[in-house]
Design brief:
By secondary structure, this protein is α+β, with helices and mostly antiparallel strands. It contains five helices and nine strands; from the N terminus they run E-H-E-E-E-H-E-H-E-E-E-E-H-H. Strands 1, 2, 3, 4, 5, 6, 7, 8 and 9 form a nine-stranded mixed beta sheet that branches. InterPro entries: SUFU-like_domain.
Length: about 240
């Protein structure tokens, strides 16, 4: 099933604004990306939330619904790889190999979607993680930069919370080894897969002191190693002050 996301009311995540369309968008990888995640997480109901903004390139969101065996949602971008990210610096860098990327996140199975006919509605206030992922997929193309492990990003310069029911207000990018870290496309291109871990402002402030590895390890230790989004999880930055 396919739904279309309308523009979110009020401020957009990461202070994004519309920019000109990228002239060389190629959606040839979209179907491969959808099939890849459906193969990794099989036997799930699935739907796609279409991008209603579509600038500078369309980034849709694939939604894989919870199962009894795996009671969590898997959401992922479709279209971030419509254009390569721009790598700063070295002309020797193999852009074909690693400059394409997509994102994914995991939400607990009891995430408070007010689903209609068991399908997530993009206009549901609880669907903010889908819009967050959509905007994050556009971010490197809007700002002509590169996402990689350890990249941190506040939600606006004032680190505003992502939603009214949480103080989470930033993120750090992680990348795993194996099938959840990259996928090989039919033409030989390696597509990088990234997962954002949502952060509190105080954790963002700790980044320069702890570095990405220690910060991520402490966060995971506090939630028993779970990568599911928890809007009320322990704030490691506040523990550091005690």
């Amino acid at each position: 099933m396919t739904l279309t996301a309308q523009r979110r009311q009020g401020k957009r995540f990461f202070s994004l604004t519309d920019t000109e369309m990228i002239s060389s968008i190629d959606g040839k990888y979209n179907e491969q990306v959808k099939c890849y995640f459906r193969r990794l997480f099989p036997y799930r109901t699935h739907s796609v939330l279409r991008d209603g903004t579509r600038k500078p390139l369309p980034v849709d969101i694939g939604i894989l619904y919870p199962t009894v065996e795996e009671p969590f949602y898997l959401i992922h971008t479709i279209g971030m790889s419509g254009a390569p990210m721009q790598y700063p610096g070295s002309a020797e860098f193999d852009a074909k190999k690693s400059s394409y990327g997509e994102l994914y996140m995991m939400l607990p199975g009891n995430w408070p979607f007010s689903a209609c006919n068991d399908v997530v509605d993009g206009d549901d206030p609880a669907a903010w993680p889908l819009h967050l992922l959509m905007e994050l997929g556009r971010f490197p193309h809007v700002h002509k930069l590169w996402l990689s492990y350890g990249f941190v990003l506040p939600n606006t310069e004032f680190c505003e919370p992502f939603a009214p029911d949480t103080a989470l207000s930033g993120l750090i990018i992680v990348q795993f080894d194996g099938e959840l870290g990259e996928m090989k496309l039919a033409d030989g291109t390696m597509l990088q897969l990234f997962m954002p871990i949502l952060l509190y402002k105080e954790e963002l402030d700790l980044y320069n002191t702890l570095g990405p590895d220690e910060l991520i390890e402490r966060i995971l230790d506090s939630c028993d190693g779970s990568f599911l989004v928890d809007v009320k999880r322990t704030n490691i930055g506040l523990l550091q002050r005690e």
